[in-house]
TrEMBL record:
Localization annotation: Cell inner membrane
Protein name as annotated: Uncharacterized protein
Source organism of this protein record: Virgibacillus necropolis
PANTHER family the UniProt entry points to: INNER MEMBRANE PROTEIN YEDE (PTHR30574), SULPHUR TRANSPORT DOMAIN-CONTAINING PROTEIN (PTHR30574:SF1)
Keywords: Cell inner membrane, Cell membrane, Membrane, Transmembrane, Transmembrane helix, Transport
Membrane topology term: Multi-pass membrane protein
Any Pfam family matching the protein: Sulf_transp
Gene Ontology cellular component list: plasma membrane
Annotated TM spans: 30-47, 53-74, 95-115, 127-148, 160-180, 200-224, 245-265, 320-339, 351-375, 381-402
Recorded family membership: Belongs to the TsuA/YedE (TC 9.B.102) family.
Main location: membrane
Length: 418
């Protein structure tokens, strides 16, 4: 028996999720305004920061544009699989990861980078901190209505309740930063395990093992679908030919490839893969400092990270990427005529508060979110990325029982927001 009542497609109430069957007219003034803001920010970064920062702003813009146009989901992909057995979106994750490891392998093996610095992937320990963090993140993203990247691009698309999720995501990340030394120093954990460097397989062998694992996961989703026969994802309106780049929905497979390529470009630009939530901890810590809290004494802000706390947020590459994602999603939504602030109620506000807190706290404990730990970790051949995915799925399953308490449903196929 399904843990929740599955809501039919035609009863989905969220006006952002419930799109028209025909394309809307572009919101020209919003597009112009977004381009002006983007240009001003690009020029400011070019004038005041390292050359990588304006480049990362453009990369972030492209990431946000891609996420919104394809409604590329992490939260919804996990929820569809766990609730009704639809693995279509999760298979797009496997394609994304397959392309990513194919690109990451030579970059990490030979240290390729655009600006001469070193490159390193996200390889983190597997322990209590990861297990607890990923599990509560899985719960949080199902209550909060979006993962880390999904929160950013939903904000860019005007989904009002996601502003609340983002605010409490920042609060949770800041509390998680304060508590992190306890979880990493007092709780047991294994050393970081890389399929490439910890096993003797090398990047070639690790790539082959990764592709095999993605194939197995794909086969499992197909077997589950064959048994459960879930409904397919509903098609979304789109333009024809080259106009589809700017108007209407993109295929999931196209977005999967684009996201993998952009993550590899991010790696070669700043030396590390795409991430999201470290910036939330930074923003929250700076706000806490403004109110007189001695954030600089926290263990999280010791060593190399101390400089970030003293510098402008525009010097932080993850912050710049996040701003780019929001701006890119805004432009994509305006191009599709979809930008519109949505209604909120007390129940979904409560869910957003709890979900945001759990995601922020969980992301710090788990060394990242669906982007930094799951996408970036697996692309970097780290075992912790796979563990993160399994525990986030477990958290998702529990959250299916919690969502109805907040008036949240589990639509059959059209809940395509991440």
């Amino acid at each position: 028996m399904s843990p929740v009542n599955v809501q039919p497609i035609d009863e989905v109430k969220d006006p952002v999720q419930r799109e028209n069957t025909e394309l809307n007219s572009p919101q020209t003034r919003l597009i112009i305004g977004g381009l002006v803001v983007g240009a001003i920010l690009f020029i400011y970064l070019l004038a005041t920061q390292a050359i990588t920062q304006p480049i990362l702003l453009v990369i972030g813009l492209l990431l946000g544009y891609t996420l919104f146009h394809a409604r590329f989901g992490f939260t919804s992909a996990f929820r569809r699989l766990m609730s009704v057995g639809n693995g279509q979106a999760l298979r797009s994750h496997m394609l994304m990861l397959a392309v990513a490891v194919t690109l990451f392998a030579p970059i990490l093996a030979f240290g390729y980078s655009f600006f001469g610095g070193g490159v390193s992937g996200y390889v983190s320990p597997v322990g209590v901190s990861l297990v607890v963090g990923a599990f509560i993140f899985g719960i949080g993203m199902q209550l909060g209505g979006g993962c880390a990247s999904g929160t950013l691009y939903a904000v860019g698309g005007g989904r009002t309740v996601m502003f609340i999720t983002l605010l409490f995501f920042i609060v949770g990340a800041t509390i998680g930063a304060y508590h992190l030394p306890f979880w990493t120093e007092e709780m047991p954990a294994f050393e970081p395990i890389s399929l490439a460097t910890s096993t003797g397989l090398g990047y070639g062998g690790a790539w082959a093992i990764s592709i095999l694992l993605f194939g197995i996961i794909t086969w499992i989703t197909l077997a589950v679908e064959k048994k459960k026969r879930p409904p397919r994802m509903a098609p979304k309106p789109s333009a024809n030919g080259w106009k589809r780049i700017f108007r209407g929905s993109w295929p999931l497979f196209a977005a999967a490839i684009a996201l993998a390529v952009l993550n590899a470009v991010t790696l070669m630009t700043r030396g590390t893969p795409w991430g999201v939530t470290s910036a939330f901890a930074l923003w929250g810590s700076k706000i806490a400092t403004f109110f007189g809290i001695d954030v600089a004494s926290w263990g999280y802000w010791q060593g190399a990270s101390a400089q970030a706390l003293q510098s402008s947020i525009f010097a932080d590459s993850t912050t710049v990427l996040n701003f780019g994602v929001i701006l890119g999603a805004f432009l994509a939504s305006a191009a599709g005529g979809l930008f519109k602030f949505t209604k909120i109620n007390l129940k979904n506000v409560a869910a957003s508060i709890i979900g945001g807190l759990l995601m922020g706290y969980g992301a710090r404990l788990a060394f990242g979110c669906n982007i930094g730990a799951y996408f970036g970790g697996i692309a970097s051949f780290s075992l912790h990325g796979y563990v993160w995915g399994i525990l986030a799925l477990a958290g998702t399953f529990l959250a299916l029982y919690l969502r109805p308490l907040f008036g949240l449903s589990v639509p059959k196929s059209k809940d395509s927001f991440c």
